[in-house]
Specification:
With 332 residues, this protein is α/β, with parallel strands linked by helices. 43% of the residues lie in helices and 15% in strands. The chain has a single domain, classed as Alpha-Beta Barrel (TIM Barrel), CATH 3.20.20.
């Protein structure tokens, strides 16, 4: 199997302030107003990308939770993860309210990439589906995601319209066509620290041997991380883990097709990244349903067994402290 070099990235973000000058009516005095706003975080920082590449080559498993909206991003971003993962399924569901079945456009998704990465301090690998078209579209997508601040882009070999990797009905394009997409992606990025995560969905319909053959081709084409989607047993995970020297990614979907195992087991198998794309929105969905059911049944939240975030702490999470500080400093 193909051998390759490993990579990493870490994040370091700073919140900057915009200044505006205001003159009094006489023009004799000028005051400087500091207006709080959020600027690009770690996802846009070249040093953060380089840091993630180093971690990938360290032999330590990176656990990357799935983020899908600005609330999930803010919560995950402050918890000290080495990397976050923008889930296509969750992002499409939260933003458009439709299935992850090729219905979201490049414009839909790059806008979400920008929103997440410009605020996050943590590097984010973002789902780029099939690249949203042909080779020219792939180049445009990679450049757009990189400019928006992504630390990496995941590209897959499904036919359009694509589908979530743990759902039925997925078909793949010829391996040679996907190799061209990967080469174009590598060529299109402006920095080698923009990770190209190459995914194959061939396991489900064509078998593990074909999926491994494709992954080897993707490695030779220049991919930084290999992602064999939906292995169906621990044995298959072990085979994938020992087949390549490039960093390998495992997609952990609760109640999905792939065994959910302890992190140490994935690490010992040879995986560099474990993504948990659905964990956040599955937990949030259950909490919302339980809370809404309580309100529907009792017309109240009293006695609800669903845990609720403290309102003031949540307000701080959303950035209200900067607003309160601004108001204090500039109150009439």
């Amino acid at each position: 199997m193909a051998k390759a070099i490993k990579n990493t990235k870490k994040a370091d973000g700073k919140t900057e302030a915009a200044t505006a000058k205001a003159a009094d009516k006489s023009g004799a005095h000028k005051a400087t107003l500091t207006v709080p706003h959020q600027t690009a975080g770690g996802g846009a920082d070249p040093k953060a990308r380089a840091g993630l590449r180093k971690i990938l080559s360290s032999g330590k498993l990176i656990a990357a939770p799935g983020i899908y909206d600005m609330i999930s991003m803010r919560i995950a971003d402050r918890m000290g993860f080495e990397c976050l993962y923008m889930t296509g399924y969750g992002t499409v569901a939260s933003y458009l309210g439709v299935p992850d079945a090729g219905l979201a456009s490049y414009t839909d998704m790059v806008n979400r990439v920008a929103a997440f990465c410009q605020m996050a301090k943590t590097p984010i690998i973002c789902d780029g589906d099939t690249g949203y078209g042909g080779l020219l579209n792939v180049a445009h997508t990679v450049r757009g995601y990189e400019a928006a601040g992504a630390a990496g882009i995941q590209l897959e070999d499904q036919e359009f319209p694509k589908k979530c990797g743990h759902t039925p009905g997925r078909r793949v394009i010829p391996a040679a066509d996907m190799v061209k997409k990967i080469r174009i992606a590598v060529e299109a990025r402006s920095s080698k620290d923009m990770l190209i995560v190459a995914r194959t969905d061939a396991r489900t319909t064509l078998g593990l041997d074909e999926a491994l053959r494709r992954a080897e081709m993707f490695a030779k084409a220049g991919a930084d991380v290999l992602f064999v989607e939906s292995p169906e047993s621990e044995k298959e995970l072990e085979i994938i883990g020992r087949s390549f020297e490039l960093p390998k990614l495992v997609n952990v979907v609760e109640a999905g097709r792939t065994p959910v195992l302890p992190a140490k087991t994935y690490e010992e198998m040879g995986f560099a990244i474990a993504i948990y794309p659905g964990s956040g929105f599955l937990a949030a969905g259950r909490a919302l349903e339980d809370t809404y059911a309580q309100i529907k049944k009792t017309r109240s939240t009293l006695g609800s067994k669903a845990g609720l975030y403290d309102f003031m702490e949540f307000s701080k999470l959303m950035g209200f402290e900067a607003v309160w500080d601004f108001d204090r400093r500039h109150a009439d």
